[in-house]
Amino acid sequence: MRILVVEDELDLQEAIAEGLRIEGYAVDTCSNGEDAYELAYVGIYDLIILDLNLPKMDGLKVLDKIREEKKEVKVLILSARSSVNDKVKGLDIGANDYLTKPFDFAELEARIRNLLRWKFVQENNLLSCGDIKIDLSKRIALIDENELMLTKKEFALLEYFLLNHERVVSQEELIEHVWDQNADSFSGAIRVHIATLRKKLKAILDYDPIRTKIGEGYFITKNDGDS
């Protein structure tokens, strides 16, 4: 999943971004309201973490402008403004959640998981396709209840396939949601990561659950007989 972190305190920005990257998220960052709106407008994000006290454009104004263009993107306000009025205003404008500073990173992660779960209408913390499962709370992948050892990027790819298991996912869509803004769509990295993920899954399942639809993209199947 791809997340934009908007925070003008650079140490905090980097701490949040690094923590989320460790958990396997693709993360972009910026430190002012104007850049935040531009990135949100031109980029495709599953979630935006938005501070309110921003230079160049206040966070509430950023949120208001984002909602004019993109109603579906999830926005979590992360702010030192703790009054009820600020929270009510942020939620009324269109924030999906509001967390005040100081905060515990574990709570931030839990709120992120909750918002992303609702984005994909996922009613519990388990994603599955056949024998393949992902526990979203523990951030682990399982096959027949045995943990599958994946890199962060392989895990992110498998998570996105499971979230979208009923349709073909294009390479461009994977780049938009699993990689950050520094990704090179021509580097071939996505094919390398998919190849290694396929190899690990096939070694346990005895079939390749990730299929290629020529000219369209990839999809995941439950068994070797699916098409």
Summarize the structure.
With 227 residues, the protein is α/β, with parallel strands linked by helices. The protein is 42% helix and 21% strand.
Keywords for this entry:
single chain, 227 residues, alpha/beta, Rossmann fold, Arc Repressor Mutant, subunit A, 2 domains, five-stranded parallel β-sheet, four-stranded antiparallel β-sheet, 11 strands, 42% helix, 21% strand
Description:
The protein has 227 residues and is an alpha/beta fold. It has two domains: 118 residues, Response regulator (Rossmann fold), CATH 3.40.50.2300; 95 residues, Arc Repressor Mutant, subunit A. 42% of the residues lie in helices and 21% in strands. The chain is built from eight helices and eleven strands. The strands form three sheets. Strands 2-1-3-4-5 form a five-stranded parallel β-sheet, sandwiched between helices. A hairpin with a 2-residue loop joins strand 6 and strand 7. Helix 2 packs parallel to helix 3. The longest helix is centred in the last third of the chain and has 17 residues. The radius of gyration is 18 Å and the shape is elongated. The model has no long low-confidence stretch (mean pLDDT 88).
Task: Give the topology.
Layout: E1 2-6, H1 10-22, E2 26-30, H2 33-42, E3 47-50, H3 59-69, E4 74-79, H4 84-93, E5 97-100, H5 105-119, E6 126-129, E7 132-135, E8 140-143, E9 146-148, H6 152-163, H7 171-178, H8 189-205, E10 210-213, E11 217-220
